Amino acid sequence: MFRSLLNFSLSLLLTGSISAQSMPNAGQTLLGFSAENIAAQKALEKKFDASLKRENLREWLKRMSARPHHVGSPHGKDNAEFMLALFKSWGYDAQIEQFDVLFPTPKTRVLEMLAPEKFTARIAEPELKEDATSNQQSEQLPVYNAYSADGDVTAPLVYVNYGVPADYEELEKRGVEVKGKIVIARYGGSWRGIKSKVAAEHGAVGCLIYSDPRNDGYFQGDVYPKGAYRNENGAQRGSVVDMPTFPGDPLTPNVGATKNAKRLDRKDATTLTKIPVMPISYADALPLLRTLEGAVVPESWRGALPITYHFGGTERTKVHLKLEFNWDIKPIYNVIAKMKGGERPDEWIIRGNHHDAWVNGASDPVSGQVALLEEARAVSELVKSGWKPKRTIIYCAWDGEEPGLLGSTEWVETHAAELKEKAAVYINSDSNGRGFLGVGGSHTLEKFVNEVAGDVADPQTKISVGQRWRANELINGSPNAKRDAKERGDLRIDALGSGSDYTPFLQHLGIASLNVGYGGESGGGSYHSVYDSYDHYIRFGDPNFDYGIALAQTAGRMTLRLANADVLPFEFTNFADTIGIYIKEIMTLADTMREDTKAMNRMIADGTLKAVQDPTQIFIVPKPKSEVPFLNFAPLHNALATLQESAKNYQTAAKDKSSPSAQKQLDAILMKTERALTSQNGLTRRDWFKHQIYAPGFYTGYGVKTLPSVREAIEQRDWKEAGEQIEIVAKTIANFAAEIDKATRLL
Amino acid sequence: MFRSLLNFSLSLLLTGSISAQSMPNAGQTLLGFSAENIAAQKALEKKFDASLKRENLREWLKRMSARPHHVGSPHGKDNAEFMLALFKSWGYDAQIEQFDVLFPTPKTRVLEMLAPEKFTARIAEPELKEDATSNQQSEQLPVYNAYSADGDVTAPLVYVNYGVPADYEELEKRGVEVKGKIVIARYGGSWRGIKSKVAAEHGAVGCLIYSDPRNDGYFQGDVYPKGAYRNENGAQRGSVVDMPTFPGDPLTPNVGATKNAKRLDRKDATTLTKIPVMPISYADALPLLRTLEGAVVPESWRGALPITYHFGGTERTKVHLKLEFNWDIKPIYNVIAKMKGGERPDEWIIRGNHHDAWVNGASDPVSGQVALLEEARAVSELVKSGWKPKRTIIYCAWDGEEPGLLGSTEWVETHAAELKEKAAVYINSDSNGRGFLGVGGSHTLEKFVNEVAGDVADPQTKISVGQRWRANELINGSPNAKRDAKERGDLRIDALGSGSDYTPFLQHLGIASLNVGYGGESGGGSYHSVYDSYDHYIRFGDPNFDYGIALAQTAGRMTLRLANADVLPFEFTNFADTIGIYIKEIMTLADTMREDTKAMNRMIADGTLKAVQDPTQIFIVPKPKSEVPFLNFAPLHNALATLQESAKNYQTAAKDKSSPSAQKQLDAILMKTERALTSQNGLTRRDWFKHQIYAPGFYTGYGVKTLPSVREAIEQRDWKEAGEQIEIVAKTIANFAAEIDKATRLL
Fold this sequence. Notes:
Two copies of one chain form a homodimer. By secondary structure, chain A is α/β, with parallel strands linked by helices. In chain A, 38% of the residues lie in helices and 16% in strands.
């Protein structure tokens, strides 16, 4: 998992009283299924559940995480071949599909403080006797950030909090210069790649990213090996490629990184960082941070180290950072296993999880991968017993996810034309743990997800995972989530930003996608560390593989229903409802920015802002910002009204029986509806991203931006662009509604 | 100061643009003054300002904080005599008024950990070479909590966060037993005396209170002597007497502790703690806290020590606490200095600050005391130049504030009858520092305070202190405070809870009171420590005594205007507005409790609450609470309507010229209006507190509870009592309105 589970966001299942209520889908209706086929499907799922074996998960997880298996490693290739053999043994048409990608590994890593005292950072995670695989130093990738620039820099050190744009505004107000300095940012608040990108934009010459114990260490819980959390030497490897511009091999944007693909020269690759970047542990960060002088940072910037946090940036603290990498092209191995559909073989249900890790990766990604394998095995058992899916099922084990979704992106780019024709839905999983179901994805599948969540039992509480999800929203949700959980029939699924392999499917090609996993009760700080090991996972992850089985049941049900339904189970009223919320959000965003700008400009002009500052501290009054005009949101409202109407008409019509002969014809339209949400020109300044509803944020990384071209234009205060994008997005939504109408006409 | 400035709450001055606006009271109107007398008053104030000398403040502060001057100390008596001499030299009719009070000092203090390892707490603040008075160990009161019980207990240790009732609810849910244990609470979240009271209520046998660096230490800023904040050995002395029941000498409730007063037997004294209590530093707390086992505490409970915080309470950590005290009766010395009024000598304007400290007390209380002295000196200069106040001015320097407002309370109780007749207004100050004006008090004086704040220039920014106060509200205030600062002509003053010497005046006798001071930019952690020294104060407090002069100008203006006005400058529309807010608050409180109770009871009944818990952790589902009935708030609304009408009528009438002959008669009514806000029966279960609008919270300590008898009945879920108290408070408000009407009839 490219993305940290630390901020595992749970969003939203079914109505009312938990104990009083029976499982909601016990036989009445099932989205996409004719009444006469429901019982057979339910029986099939029961059989499927019964054949799932937790011992397989344990055995495979131990085997696959037994050695480091990053891109280019012997054990990585071995794992791919192991899975290939399994798929073949289960009767899948399976193969390994290789790509050749740029994957830098460290040659030189030096971090030392030259002043006010000498200190050399350890940048290593030591062996622990409680962790059997932590001693495999010769095979481990050291602590580093992939796609960092080479560099040899010596400069004063500045603390920049999370290193997001707002933090640099604060530094400017406090008169702290970043240009020519090395910044130290803490993990959290954004995806790591944003930190180095924004640091470079502000003229920093180097970037350190450390795990503060406030976010990822003893503040959260007991540290490893006593507890699950990151210990003082734990560090978080990870990619800093500019994924929000495009993921995949930096040298082959838009095309597959096949052997003979045309490659960019490395100097022309736009997604590589401009400055050297390295992650460090809090044991390595503490000696540096405690020497910083200057003003004390704002309260929200302070971590849990036993020091007073200062901005630094003065000549007192001098740091030397030297990084050199082997810029090699390495092979990656995707495992692709097909089970051809009987009735509609050219409609594909794709189910994927990555298999590469930063080190041993027991949780990330093997915990998800082994659930996928067991799901695939149980599906093959059904086939052996005589059942055959209507549609084709394709299981994928991606390589190279960690450096930047390499395996999935290159595969999607290579097969783009065929996928656009045949892919109905992509279902992704990644790390998995104990706790609550979390689902993100296309809101055309929200109702479908709710049905599935109502039919899987939570292993710990025996209520459905949907009911437990709802309970969590009711108690721990935001005020809006609480209200929805109380009043709305369906729980809301998250919108997808990025951070795992759904991105090329959803955001590049417009294939309806879901990302599924459990978590929230298997906290800890092993993410991207040598301590993400079998030993850690069976103590703190999912000791009995209960949630591995739950994931196989959940994603397996999704796969089986999607593969078997009479008509693809898309539904559009929930999508329309969601779009309505996004439109409200961006209007509120503009209104709030308008009021805040006015208020701040007034306080700058009349001296209020200056008047409250402590005159003994530096404070540079910011320049007033341009006023926020009123934007014409009417095109979006008109498009939304059309969409609502179309969605309702389809819902009403779908209640009538569709003639069996028309189902295939209907599928052909439905499977491509999500494509209508893309635009060939893509997003402004990053045209690889085609989806007009969901994208990772340009300045948040994983964090999703919905209606991204409008929202980001507003956030960047480009009013002209915002107005243009409103028109484009409105047209996209109207086109989408027209596709729904086409489907309705077939009913 | 009995109360910590750490949570210095600034609440609210005048309209619009700071730079564009001139000082608002430049000559137009002045509350209480006829138009023809305004210019003379302004000229007088100018003369007053001109005679203030910062060198006096520096010299006196250095002199008074040169040695420890707690109750019973030689230097405390010496300071009283020094001030007496000063007042006399300035022409005041001054005397020392002695009381004899119970004041325990430590004989034995032992805190040791017996298991899992041996550790003996230092409980001492070491000498620092940067702090000249920190070496006066032989005269210093050691680190202790006054009025702790004697005790010798050995028990497991439990961490209870702030030790307020809600924390014990959490402990109960987590299955952590407190009975028979020693609790360790961190400072903050409530007044310290609440921590030991609530601990004892839950069966704890001992209580430690430590300064967590999150609230009071390196998390906040650099520690002493590098910076102003509490270092690892700094500890906070302080009283744990049950002040919300009654302040003053525990042996003489309601009567003055004169030589021959009838005293309670110590065993019958209800305000003494039931268990031994001691404050400790974070260096002493860390070894204890890091041994605690059990579950990890909720995030909001975690401090800034470099450990994972656990509940503890198991047999693993055993602590031995032994405390013995000398339970002596000690003399205290109030200095009372009168300047008799010319025209209305039986109307008293009383101005006080305490002079006793826990150790050297440069900030607390000497910084406020020296501003009062300089104010008194400047007033005497005016008198020497031929001016005479209309009303009598009484300057008071209280002793024994720190242990429990002893000096002021005993004086007020002794002179209660005369004070009820003659006291018009009491103005209090205490610690003072650099920053923003903060004022709390009777809202009948809110308009008056706003006028004064508009006429004092902020020494750092040159705008008025009112304008700076408003700027601070606009930028740092709560959403309501921001809106008020933008839209309301007058800034809101705080309601007074307790924590300094206004309490007996305001809450026992119903004398309109104000508490005035500057702060917010002189942060630090010297409160109740040996490091509250001259050296600390001139580096981090108010190095140039700018804000000492500003306090003298502010409180001096208040005193001079109150003493000199044609009619006492009370105003009632702001008071009515405030009461309206309080009524809304308690209605919202009941509504919120009703909804929360319903929602929680439902989640308990239907299993939602249990469903979201991690089954590997202990969680005891709480019992459902009784439903919250709808209360009849109509009596309060009716009383409010009457009050609004009366306030408006007085405001309209007051604009007409009052005949000079009627002014004295009018004063006689006005000065007693606040008395009408008291009830002779006092508050339920604590009848010393007579005021029906303002009281310290029974379970918050200093934190104010407005409309306390109603609010606390609701909080304690006593619906019958809430209904009864609504009637009583409504009558009180109606009686108050009737007093205003009497005044109006004289106009």
